[in-house]
Amino acid sequence: MDERNQDLPFSESVEMYLLRIALLSRQEQPVPIALLADELGISPVSTNQMCRKLEEKELVQYQPYKGVILTSAGDAVARHVLERRRLWELFMIEALDMPAEQAEDFACRFEHVTPDELSERLAIFLSTVARDKNMAAAASRGRQEHLLTELQAGQSAEVVSIDVPQAWRSFLMAEGVLPGAYLKVLAVSSQGTYLLDVADHQLAVVSEIAAIIQVTVLA
After folding, report:
1. Domain 145-217 belongs in CATH node 3.30.420.270
2. How far is Cα 78 from Cα 20, in angstroms, rounded to an integer?
3. Do 1-114 and 145-217 come out as alike in CATH topology?
4. In the chain, which end has fewer C-beta atoms inside a 10 angstrom radius, N or C?
5. How many alpha carbons lie under 13 Å from residue 48 in its C-beta half-sphere?
6. pLDDT tens-digit profile of 55-103?
7. pLDDT tens digits for range 140-168
8. What percentage of the chain exceeds 70 in pLDDT?
9. Would you state the CATH architecture of domain 1-114?
10. Three-state secondary structure along 35-78?
11. Is 17 in contact with 23 (CB distance < 8 Å)?
């Protein structure tokens, strides 16, 4: 366990491997060990050894001659780390007026040493700041807040707040659904599931969650 922070169940090294595997994954295909090693700047032998240890912890599935795939447990850890990174990035950019590149650099350092309690406080703070900012901006432009469920396919919007249960908030933030983020509704299924284009990828959100995400309509 990381001695610097007893709230975190995994070491920084484990988190970095899982996060990098998640970022390199494409359509659930195994991430080659050589590619992972190159991204991390570590030898393929050391990378292979670490992946074997991650497999023992049931965080990845190792496929000989192909690479590794995150298990559901490994994916959850990676999403959690990515959420902490994005919270810090947003805080530094919005609250500290820090350049995006510099904010990303610092966020990469903080993502491994941030306990859940601090992450939750950051999320609440940023949600409040973004909501107030977006409400003021929307009012000045004559725009009103709406629930995501009020949008139709083809419409774009800016996220104002995501007052959803913590488990869903963590998932959504890891997927880029943050206050101030832009999204587009690609389709709405007959069951009420919303297919969104957000943060350069597609995401499906069930109606129960879409009904408590507030947005301002752009088009």
Report:
1. no
2. 8
3. no
4. C
5. 8
6. 999 999 999 889 999 999 998 898 888 888 888 888 888 788 888 888 8
7. 555 678 889 999 999 999 888 877 666 67
8. 86
9. Orthogonal Bundle (1.10)
10. HHHHHHCCCHHHHHHHHHHHHHCCCEEEECCCEEEECHHHHHHH
11. no
Pull the structure tokens for residue 131: 């909501």
Q: What predicted TM-score, i.e. pTM, was given to this entire model?
A: 0.60
The interaxial angle of helices 33-40 and 12-24, nearest 10 deg, is: 120
In order of 90, 141, 146, 199, the CA distances from 135 in angstroms are 18, 10, 11, 22
Q: Which regions of the chain does DSSP assign to beta strands (E)?
A: 60-63, 67-70, 145-147, 156-162, 182-188, 194-198, 201-205, 213-217
Find, among 210, 14, 189, the residue nearest to 112 by Cα: 14
Q: Which two tokens stand for residue 212?
A: 């408590």
Contact between residue 34 and residue 48 where contact means Cβ atoms under 8 Å apart:
no
Domain ranges of the chain: 1-114, 145-217
The answer to whether residues 19 and 10 touch, using CB atoms and an 8 Å cutoff, is no
Q: Which of 69-78, 80-89, 110-119, 191-200 has the highest mean pLDDT?
A: 69-78
